[in-house]
Design a protein that fits this description.
Length: 256
């Protein structure tokens, strides 16, 4: 059943480097703290941190039946929250994905692998295929991983699949503040969907986060901003706003 509103939470999270179990515990605590949200989005590689050297360690990879994720599954079930974590994902078919992993309140798992990999990432991962949007209380939530949001064709495909929300797990670094604002604003405005960005907090090998996680309205306005440090921000999305803008575009001949 479609709901008129969707409450979303975006976690600007600084992972414990390489410690999947501890980062899962922290994610579960954030789920409890965000009780009342329907969707909680974490950044790129939120279970390990962004240090590709650590992925030489088998323990840095997560799997569908990974017991370290049970604490997040249970928190998602208990609080009715769809929780999206960032993982180095070892799929049952042997694929290795730089993934956003959605842990659903009913115990299901949905995975979206990053399509537009950097040169260094291609040595470890294979490109993901476009994943169908999630159903979160009747809202269609499309998952994007970092540079996917910089590729207009990715958001276009998600819009064609009926996305209402474009949820980006990312790493934007010092000097990329403008990119962080323009990418979600453009995707939201062009396709009349809300956009979320969860950016890593802190720093890693060769990078420091610029912060700035938040939520963007389908007219391109930023609604909330997380600042620079670890923080969870929330927003209430209104379906009426989507319908108003989409109807105006249709009258002008821009949609349908």
């Amino acid at each position: 059943m479609e709901s008129d509103e969707l409450v979303v939470a975006v976690a600007q999270h600084a992972p414990v480097p390489g410690d999947v179990a501890e980062n899962a515990r922290r994610a579960a605590a954030a789920v409890a703290d965000a009780a009342g949200a329907d969707l909680l989005l974490f950044p790129l590689l939120s279970l390990t941190g962004y240090d590709l050297r650590r992925l030489a360690e088998r323990a840095s990879w997560a799997t569908p039946d990974d017991p370290r994720l049970d604490v997040v599954r249970e928190a998602s079930r208990a609080h009715g929250v769809t929780t999206v974590v960032g993982a180095a994902w070892s799929a049952p078919d042997g694929r290795r994905l730089l993934a956003s992993v959605a842990l659903l309140p009913d115990g299901g798992v949905e995975v979206a692998g990053k399509q537009y990999l950097s040169r260094a990432e291609r040595d470890l991962f294979e490109p993901g295929e476009p994943a169908p949007p999630l159903d979160v209380r009747g809202w269609r939530v499309a998952l994007a991983v970092c540079f996917d949001a910089a590729a207009p064709e990715h958001a276009l495909e998600m819009a064609r699949r009926g996305a209402d929300v474009y949820a980006v797990s990312a790493l934007y670094t010092d000097g990329q503040e403008r990119r962080l604002d323009v990418h979600p604003a453009a995707r939201a405005m062009d396709h009349r969907m809300y956009a979320l960005v969860a950016n890593l907090a802190g720093a890693g090998p060769g990078w420091r986060s610029c912060g700035g996680s938040g939520v963007w309205h389908p007219d391109g306005r930023r609604l909330v901003e997380a600042g620079t440090g670890p923080r969870v921000v929330t927003a209430r999305l209104a379906r009426a706003e989507l319908e108003r803008l989409r109807a105006a575009d249709a009258v002008a001949g821009y949609r349908g």
